[in-house]
Specification:
heterodimer, A: 160 residues, alpha+beta, three-stranded antiparallel sheet, two-stranded antiparallel ribbon, 3 helices, elongated, B: 709 residues, eight-stranded antiparallel sheet, 26 helices, 28 strands
Chain lengths: 160, 709
């Protein structure tokens, strides 16, 4: 299991959850909320299950040299804040991030950064840090996630 | 000198290629399908904030590289050209491009696009058995499972999947050994090479190198039924190749999964890893859950930047693909790969070739044949910079290279009429001006080197020149070393010729294609002689030659003395571009006359009787062609074309007689442009051989008669 002490961000893919039996959720001092099974699949049940989770353990934006570009990229990720409704956190936001990152990469706005060994896969050999174009690696990974999950109904994304 | 190396042994040499620049070119070659030429697969740059060669080896080891691939359409076009496909990329080229994308998936630069339900189950919480099919082996899903799902999964590779890859290898080797090199066969060979060798390497990798548990299964086939049948493709019928019976092979893979399921505990999941929709559906219908992924496509990698450092899909750890792994995979899949930088040398890795042997320990230790080449050193006679003589500045060096080979005294200068033209009017008969309308307008273009020196005559091999133009079109940037290999020398005269015509720009250790190179190359590859002429007339020396021809009156031979050592070159260029033709080396005539079929028929019917001296009605074909050349200014190629057109229009009747090939006048030849596998070749045509005028007829005598209305 991943070591959670260094986690900077967690990307999650959520899917609407339609329970097969009624579920009750009770907060202290309040009447339980019942989630019924008879809601139509196209209706938002208000329940979501995390179907994919992926951690980033270092500042992925560290290689971006210009503050303006950095905040621009960060702003797109903030659109995936878990506090926003799922309808505002669709895969399209990840696509926007990918497009923006590609543009900035092509403009040369990103410098390689040294990644420390704690981020390396423990199964791989080698101990010292090496330069990484972290934004490019992130972009490639998000493209893969989008390619896998696109088209599936009821999907939302969050970055925490 | 090639020697066997493992990827880790090669890393210092790969790093050495990056010594002068952090960006290198990546070129691949399939020696039979591509001939001796290479396909550029973009550039590889090291991810480094500081140019520190001491760290390069570390960066190479740790996958700190970016691979920028060229755009898909451009690459497809180049592959089609390399394969000699006249009609552009066909379906096999498109499939070959997908196989190239699979290379990136197998080494881990990209991941297979899994079905979302499959992905959400990963990594598996219970030990699971994955039964893989052939598509999983070829398209990187097997490697993905070995890298990221192990040890939670046990991999089972059915015997039929191994047999399919063994069959692909057999097809590849049979095609490779076949003598025919037709374009269709070459594209087939490329495709089978990419599949079979890439597939075998993937199987060997998980067997020998990955820390993965791989199980074999029984074939489980019906002993009375074959899983393979004879290939019915017309192109390869004589090679007795076989293809798998797809539905039966799929059935055997599913049977492997069912067999394992029956022997496992009820709680042990058995999944089928496949990109085949039909197999996935069949598995679902029979209670086996597929782990489906979408087939890898060329668009997944071409026109994109890939990285050697990627995030592990489930943990978020950074993982790396050593650059040597990518190079090894490309070398195995194509046959050869070269990574090069003009300033620091090149590193070539080959997996197959006539001079290379193979033994099982090569596979066990992952050894391939490697060769590092230092950058070309200056010649021994040239002064070495820094040793007593300062290196001249680049501009001065360039001027020296284009050195003034002064035109002989009295020879015409560009833009000025030739001396002989001054007296032309004295020799011309009234009303006998040769039609000039078909002659191209000749004018100097801005931005092109001018002056007497630029227009001095050079000596080149015209076919090599054309090959060089096509190579520049294919690669855009061609290292000097590659040019030298092609032209068999230092290429200074080729450089001067192309540069003065704006067809090449000299880069840093490489030749860069000029703007007109695509136009010229397309014209050469499509035998569009008029366009070839238009492009070459931008070259001052050829324009000067054209001016000299334009200044001749009909029946007047060119004085070849001003061309000196360049006579043969410009004569060939002139013949190929229909500006001139020769009766012998010393008698070159301008051929500006390109009459329409009606006019041509009139000319022929008027002149033919004068050649029929013995009244037999028959004239030697070469004599007839030479007569039209000398007296009418008609090029043999034009005469051949219009004779056929006039005959088809019923304007005249042509026939031949005599079955013995005419062996006299072997020196009476004309050079013409032809294409072989969509590559330009300069062919010598013997005017006195009848098969030139009427293909398939060796008759040396020609009869031409008018047809009465």
């Amino acid at each position: 299991m991943p070591d959670d002490t260094n986690i900077q961000r967690t990307f999650s893919i959520w899917r609407e959850f339609h329970p097969s039996r009624p579920l009750a959720h009770r907060l202290a001092g309040e009447a339980p909320v019942i989630f019924h099974t008879d809601s139509a699949p196209e209706e938002d049940s208000g329940l979501y299950e995390e179907i994919y989770r992926w951690h980033l353990r270092e500042d992925i934006l560290a290689g971006i040299t210009e503050e303006g570009v950095r905040s621009e990229v960060d702003d797109v990720l903030k659109r995936l804040d878990a506090a926003k409704p799922p309808s505002a956190r669709q895969l399209d936001v990840l696509r926007d991030f990918i497009n923006l990152a590609r543009t900035r990469l092509n403009e040369g706005a990103v410098d390689p950064v040294l990644w420390n060994e704690p981020n390396a896969d423990p199964r791989e050999e080698g101990t010292d840090a090496v330069e990484v174009n972290s934004l490019l690696s992130l972009t490639l990974h998000l493209e893969w996630i989008v390619a896998c999950f696109e088209g599936r109904p009821g999907i939302s994304v969050s970055v925490r | 000198m090639f020697s066997l190396m493992s990827p880790s042994q090669a890393e210092p040499l790969i790093a050495k290629v990056f010594a002068a620049s952090s960006k290198c070119q990546l070129l691949v070659s399939e020696e039979h399908a591509f001939g001796k030429r290479c396909l550029p697969l973009g550039t590889v740059s090291l991810v480094s904030s500081e140019p520190d060669p001491a760290r390069h080896e570390r960066l190479v080891q740790r996958g700190a590289f970016e691979w920028r691939l060229p755009c898909l359409d451009e690459t497809k076009r180049k592959v089609a050209c390399l394969l000699g496909l006249k009609d552009g990329p066909d379906d096999r080229v498109r499939r070959a491009m997908d196989e190239i994308a699979s290379i990136a998936a197998r080494v881990g630069c990209i991941y297979p696009r899994f079905d979302p339900v499959a992905l959400e189950e990963m990594p598996f919480r219970r030990t699971t058995t994955l039964v893989v099919d052939t598509s999983s082996v070829l398209q990187g899903a097997l490697d993905f499972a070995a890298r990221f799902l192990h040890p939670g999964v046990r991999l089972k590779i059915p015997a039929i999947a191994q047999m399919e890859i063994a069959n692909q290898t057999d097809r590849f080797l049979k095609t490779r050994r076949a003598e025919s090199r037709k374009p269709g066969r070459r594209s087939y060979e490329l495709l089978e090479h990419l599949r079979s060798q890439g597939g075998q390497r993937a199987l060997l990798r998980v067997e020998l190198h990955a820390e993965t548990e791989v199980e074999r299964t029984y074939l489980l086939g019906d002993p009375l039924r074959s899983a393979f049948q004879r290939d019915t493709e017309d192109d390869i019928r004589e090679l007795s190749l076989s293809v798998p019976v797809r539905s039966y092979a799929d059935r055997l893979i599913l049977e492997s999964a069912r067999h394992h399921q029956s022997q496992s505990g009820p709680a042990h999941p058995v999944r089928l890893l496949t990109a085949d929709q039909g197999l996935a559906r069949m598995a679902m219908a029979e209670g086996i859950s597929p782990l489906f992924f979408r087939a890898t496509k060329a668009s997944d990698i071409f026109g994109r930047r890939l990285a050697g450092q990627t995030f592990a899909p489930f943990s978020g750890h950074m993982r790396h693909t050593p650059l040597a792994d990518l190079i090894w995979e490309l070398a195995t899949s194509f046959g050869s790969v070269r990574i090069e930088c003009p300033q620091s040398g090149s590193f070539q890795v080959s997996a197959i070739g006539e001079q290379f042997s193979w033994a099982p320990y090569h596979a066990e230790e992952d050894l391939l044949w490697c060769c590092f080449e230092e950058p070309k050193q200056p010649s021994a006679t040239a002064p070495v910079p820094g040793r007593g003589q300062p290196e001249p500045p680049p501009e001065e060096r360039r001027r020296k290279e284009e050195a003034p080979e002064a035109p002989p005294r009295g020879s015409p200068t560009p833009g000025m009429p030739a001396n002989r033209t001054d007296n032309r009017a004295d020799h011309e008969e009234p009303g006998r001006h040769v039609a000039r309308s078909s002659a191209p307008a000749i004018s100097y273009q801005p931005g092109v080197a001018r002056g007497a020196h630029a227009a001095s005559f050079l000596r080149l091999n015209v076919e090599r020149l054309f090959e060089l133009a096509c190579l520049l079109d294919d690669q855009v940037e061609v290292p000097v070393r590659q040019v030298e290999e092609l032209v068999g020398g230092n290429g200074s005269e080729y450089r001067r010729f192309l540069r003065t015509g704006g067809l090449v720009v000299l880069g840093d250790g490489e030749w860069v294609a000029g703007k007109r190179i695509p136009f010229l190359a397309a014209a050469l590859r499509n035998e569009r002689v008029e366009d070839v002429r238009e492009a070459l007339l931008e070259v001052p020396s050829f324009k000067r030659f054209g001016d000299m021809l334009q200044g001749l009156s009909r029946g007047e031979a060119l004085d070849g003395k001003p061309l000196r050592r360049g006579l043969a070159t410009y004569r060939t260029l002139g013949e190929v571009t229909l500006l001139c033709a020769s009766v012998s080396m010393n008698r070159i005539y301008a051929t500006p006359n390109s009459p329409e079929p009606e006019e041509f028929a009139n000319i022929v019917l008027r002149r033919f009787p004068s050649l029929d001296r013995d009244g037999s009605g028959l004239v030697a074909t070469g004599e007839w062609l030479e007569d039209l050349l000398q007296h009418e200014g008609i090029h043999p190629e034009v005469a051949r074309r219009q004779l056929r057109a006039a005959s088809e229009l019923g304007l005249l009747r042509r026939s031949t007689e005599g079955s013995t090939t005419q062996l006299r006048h072997r020196d009476r030849v004309v050079h013409v442009l032809r294409t072989d596998s969509a590559e330009p070749v300069v062919e010598r045509v013997f005017l006195y051989r009848g098969d030139y005028l009427i293909p398939g007829k060796a008759s040396a005598s020609l009869r031409i008669e008018g047809i009465r209305p």
